TrEMBL record, chain A:
<comment type="similarity">
    <text>Belongs to the ABC transporter superfamily. Glutathione importer (TC 3.A.1.5.11) family.</text>
</comment>
<dbReference type="Pfam" id="PF08352">
    <property type="entry name" value="oligo_HPY"/>
</dbReference>
<keyword id="KW-0997">Cell inner membrane</keyword>
<dbReference type="GO" id="GO:0005886">
    <property type="term" value="C:plasma membrane"/>
</dbReference>
<dbReference type="InterPro" id="IPR003593">
    <property type="entry name" value="AAA+_ATPase"/>
</dbReference>
<dbReference type="InterPro" id="IPR027417">
    <property type="entry name" value="P-loop_NTPase"/>
</dbReference>
<dbReference type="GO" id="GO:0016887">
    <property type="term" value="F:ATP hydrolysis activity"/>
</dbReference>
<comment type="subunit">
    <text>The complex is composed of two ATP-binding proteins (GsiA), two transmembrane proteins (GsiC and GsiD) and a solute-binding protein (GsiB).</text>
</comment>
<keyword id="KW-1278">Translocase</keyword>
From TrEMBL, chain B:
<dbReference type="Pfam" id="PF00005">
    <property type="entry name" value="ABC_tran"/>
</dbReference>
<dbReference type="InterPro" id="IPR027417">
    <property type="entry name" value="P-loop_NTPase"/>
</dbReference>
<keyword id="KW-0547">Nucleotide-binding</keyword>
<comment type="similarity">
    <text>Belongs to the ABC transporter superfamily.</text>
</comment>
<dbReference type="Pfam" id="PF08352">
    <property type="entry name" value="oligo_HPY"/>
</dbReference>
<dbReference type="InterPro" id="IPR003593">
    <property type="entry name" value="AAA+_ATPase"/>
</dbReference>
<dbReference type="InterPro" id="IPR013563">
    <property type="entry name" value="Oligopep_ABC_C"/>
</dbReference>
<keyword id="KW-0472">Membrane</keyword>
<protein>
    <submittedName>
        <fullName>Peptide ABC transporter ATP-binding protein</fullName>
    </submittedName>
</protein>
């Protein structure tokens, strides 16, 4: 199946996907007198996914991770923003939506809801390629090959229906189905979160193997910080519809530049009975994205917040030589001349 | 030593009605003293929630067959009549759930619900109950407690709702708190706040706590002892330190080794336990872990392992315990 793999156009240095100024607001009923309000689910997000990497995405519930994923997949229409796939703008006379959709596939958390209950496993996997013009016979062969590849013996599993599978097996089918179109980018939105721990490890290993074998690139969204750290080359931290920090996984986890990333990673259980966590790194719940705080959105919970933080919006900028140019954070402490007492004067 | 506060012996719970019974709990023994926190750790379907519900007699009575004995604070739980059960729930034993929707009534304010519970259980006035509710809201650190008492559950964020549910569970001063994955649906940042709150309440009120979780890290943060469940049995139990540093059942060993964590090399693979948990309507004979166990020998297919002590307070159900270091 690798023979038909799509060509790498721009070379290894060209990001596979560049996302610029992505915005999505949802109109919802506000609590006051039923007036309309806007949920700023994704509110101006920029990032790049490099070829062959796994970019992890973390952040509290509601910060916009899934909305970002669905925008990339064009499952919902963005209010604004540009996608550039391997150097070509998506839509607007560049790469066609149909071709883009084939190259970007997604696996969701709910393994059951994402499979058609009336189709056998084999038919589910073969469906996409057939829609894209592959002969039925060939599509079924490809489905069998993929089943084998995801650890499900085709002679036992090809004819089964989704309800005849365990959660881990269903998620393997979903992965096989996503790979059937030979995509280059796979978006995994909480793809292992519903699995039991012992099965989760099997599926994570499978994802690593498939990535090597098919030269895939992953966008890996999860609320399990241990798993994100294990899987990711780089990690993006989102807060209330914005990017707080993005950088190499080791740097984000061990030397976070943004106070929110630091608090998030320090919230992970310690695993050491002699050094249990004694104090919660942040108080309170994430604020409502309907009326996000002004200035830096984290200022209502940040221990370093100063008055400037409630008025000035921090830019997502490189955080200096230590993290290198690939490490960016949006915090006024890292912005020379911002007026924060910890920032360099410019 | 005095009699334990909670003593469960040979608990089995099966659900009837299907083609064959679902054997959810298959011989659980458990002892808990006042002031002790016990984590029940296991994968989904291992019988954690059914065990907790058995302690409260919350499994649907008609289709459930329960055997064994459950004593809590000297009372034989299986023998309680309706009226006694009502007193028992809330006053002796109380429960918090993963989903606050299960415990909180959407049509009453939180203040009304707690005041009501207190008024019924302690025979005091509603005003007295409301005073108690306010104290409890302060206790579980809900900001602006007075105002929040008049809020409906859906008006609160996930973390606040969970605090409110804990307040409700504590409203009648129970001796034992059962917590069924109360932080699983929460963000890491909020989870740690709730875990610390539970630890503090446990210490200050001298509660005994059984905390159900599928996350070892969470168990380490809250518990004194961990019991690892698999297919309706406790396969290993011991002090948190011993379970983390010297896991002795092949399943516990496998679980710990398959954990993703920061110290792993980039690109390394996790160690895994093959296969998946057994079908409880069709449990294999012998050790239920045998089909997935890399140490299994012929005997494991036929002989059910009995509990064996490997060190003080650490008990393991495995035929090959003691031999494994050599494998
Ligand atoms: N169709 C919609 N209509 C209205 N609001 C929406 C819609 N979809 C998402 N939202 C809101 O947008 C925000 C971001 O949601 P999103 O699903 O992206 O969060 P998430 O980061 O994936 O969270 P989780 O960790 O819970 O999966 C939330 O406040 C959510 O309620
Ligand atoms: N009311 C019920 N009727 C039938 N089966 C049930 C019922 N409650 C639980 N079970 C089954 O019992 C087993 C153990 O469930 P449970 O204790 O909820 O697991 P967990 O360890 O995830 O909490 C599962 O197979 C579950 O499907
Ligand atoms: S800009 Fe201010 S409030 Fe925001 S993270 Fe930095 S210090 Fe905290
Ligand atoms: S009894 Fe046998 S199968 Fe069961 S855990 Fe021990 S070695 Fe493995
Ligand atoms: Mg989501
Ligand atoms: Mg449960």
């Amino acid at each position: 199946m690798s023979a038909a793999a799509p060509l790498d156009r721009g070379g290894p240095a060209q990001p596979l996907l560049t996302v610029r100024g992505l915005v999505k607001h949802f109109a919802v009923k506000g609590s006051l007198f039923g007036a309309k309000a806007m949920v700023r689910a994704v509110d101006g997000v920029d990032f790049e996914i490099l070829k062959g990497e796994t970019l992890g995405v973390v952040g509290e519930s509601g910060c916009g991770k899934s909305t970002t994923a669905r925008l990339l997949m064009h499952l919902i229409e963005p209010d604004a923003g540009t996608l550039i796939f391997d150097g070509e703008t998506v839509g607007d006379g560049g790469l066609t939506m149909r071709e883009f959709r084939r190259q970007v596939q997604m696996v969701f958390q709910d393994s059951y809801a994402s499979l058609n209950p009336r189709l056998t496993v084999e038919a589910s996997i073969a469906f996409g390629p057939q829609v894209h013009g592959v002969q039925a016979r060939q599509a079924v062969d490809r489905a069998h090959g993929l089943l084998d590849r995801v650890g499900l013996d085709p002679s036992r599993f090809a004819g089964r229906y989704p309800h005849e599978l365990s959660g881990g097996q269903r998620q393997r089918v979903n992965i096989a189905r996503a790979l059937a179109l030979q995509p280059r980018l796979l978006i995994l939105d909480e793809a292992v979160s519903a699995l039991d721990k012992s099965v989760e490890a099997q599926v994570l290993n499978l994802l690593l193997d498939l990535k090597e074998e098919f030269g895939l690139t992953y966008l890996f969204i999860s609320h399990d910080l241990n798993v994100v750290r294990f899987m990711s080359d780089r990690v993006a931290v989102m807060y209330l519809g914005k990017m707080a920090e993005i950088g190499p996984a080791g740097a984000v986890f061990d030397k976070a530049a943004h106070p929110y990333s630091a608090a998030l990673t320090r919230s992970m259980p310690s695993m050491d009975p002699d050094h249990r966590t004694e104090e919660a790194p942040i108080a309170g719940d994430p604020p409502n994205p309907i009326n996000p705080p002004t200035g830096c959105r984290f200022h209502t919970r940040c221990t370093f917040a100063e008055s400037v933080c409630s008025t000035r919006v921090p830019a997502l900028d490189p955080v200096g030589p230590e993290g290198g140019p690939s490490h960016l954070a949006a915090c006024l402490m890292h912005e020379p001349g911002s007026g924060h007492s910890k920032a360099e004067a410019s | 030593m005095s009699e334990p506060l909670v003593q469960v012996r040979g608990l089995t719970v099966s659900f009837m009605g299907g083609p064959s019974p679902i054997r959810a709990v298959n011989g659980v023994d458990l002892e808990l003293r006042a002031g002790e926190t016990y984590a029940l750790l296991g994968e989904s379907g291992s019988g954690k929630s059914v065990t907790l519900r058995a302690l409260m007699r919350l499994n649907p009575e008609k289709k459930t067959r329960v055997e064994g004995s459950i004593r809590v604070d000297g009372q034989d739980v299986m023998a309680l009549n309706r009226k006694q059960l009502q007193q028992f729930r809330g006053k002796t034993l109380s429960m918090v759930f993963q989903e606050p929707a299960l415990a909180l009534d959407p049509v009453y304010t939180l203040g009304q619900q707690i005041a009501e519970a207190v008024a019924i259980h302690e025979g005091v006035s509603h005003a007295e109950g409301r005073k108690r509710a306010l104290e409890l809201f302060e206790r579980v650190r809900i900001p602006s407690p007075e105002r929040r008492l008049d809020a409906y559950p859906h008006e609160m964020s996930g973390g606040m709702r969970q605090r409110a549910m804990i307040a409700l569970a504590l409203s009648c001063r129970p001796q034992v708190l059962l917590a069924d994955e109360p932080t699983t649906a929460l963000d890491a940042t909020v989870q740690i706040q709730i875990l610390l709150l539970l630890r503090e309440l446990q210490r200050e009120l001298g509660l005994a706590v059984i905390f159900v979780t599928h996350d070892i890290g969470v168990a380490v943060e809250v518990a004194d002892r961990i019991a690892v469940m698999y297919a309706g049995r406790i396969v290993e139990t011991g002090a948190v330190r011993d379970i983390i540093r010297n896991p002795s059942h092949p399943y516990t060993i496998g679980l710990l080794r398959s954990r993703a964590h920061g110290a792993l090399q980039k690109g390394a693979r996790l160690e895994t336990i093959p296969g998946s948990p057994p079908d409880l309507a069709n449990l294999p004979a012998g050790c239920p872990f045998a089909p997935r166990c890399r140490y299994a020998i012929d005997q494991c297919q036929t002989v059910t392992p009995e509990p064996v002590a490997v060190r003080d307070g650490q008990i393991v159900r495995c035929l090959r315990v003691g031999e494994l270091e050599a494998v």
